[in-house]
Amino acid sequence: MFSMNNIKQFVENSLGRWRSQRSAHHLTFRHFEAVQSVIDIAAISPDDRAVMELCQLYNVDPSQAVMPFQMSWEGESDWDENSEVKGSCILVPIPDPNVPNRGKLLRDQGYAETIAAAGDYHITEDGTFVLLTSYEHAAAEEKIWFANPNLRFRVSLIKTSGGSGVVTASFSSEIRSLSGN
């Protein structure tokens, strides 16, 4: 496994265009969904207005931000033929100065709910990035790891707000586009 030692390395290795194949099980609806998408991950300046506003929203000094980035995605789902899966969000990692490989990840748009969110991340010894985010009506757990520099995997669980029940479970394989397309 291709391993990351810190949040800076993780973000640097995530930059670029990725082709994603995601399978999701929506347990509430008893429905399986297949999603194919293109994900673009680009570094943005810590001085970017959106980064500054997000830090201000969470009372965080913007100088603590490490490798802020923007993620945008566009794809198709087989759930609804007319449904286009697309969006973008700003993400700002804020490492914990006292605990290595732990911190907060600020997002202007969450994964489980489309509101600003702050999750807790840590990077395991084997380089897996783990993000836990609590929302008003749900909780999300995401794990991302690299098999090699151009292949990464992502597992996501959306749970009830109390964390006792799983609403959605998904698995994604993401391959870096080396041609720029």
Automatic annotation (TrEMBL):
Record bears the keyword Lyase: yes
Pfam families reported in the protein's UniProt record: CpeS
Keyword annotations of the record: Lyase
Enzyme Commission identifier(s): 4.-.-.-
Gene Ontology molecular function terms on file: lyase activity
InterPro entries in alphabetical order: Calycin, CpcS/CpeS
Tree of life domain: Bacteria
Transmembrane segments: none
Chain's role: Covalently attaches a chromophore to Cys residue(s) of phycobiliproteins.
Similarity annotation: Belongs to the CpcS/CpeS biliprotein lyase family.
Protein name: Chromophore lyase CpcS/CpeS
Gene designation: cpeS
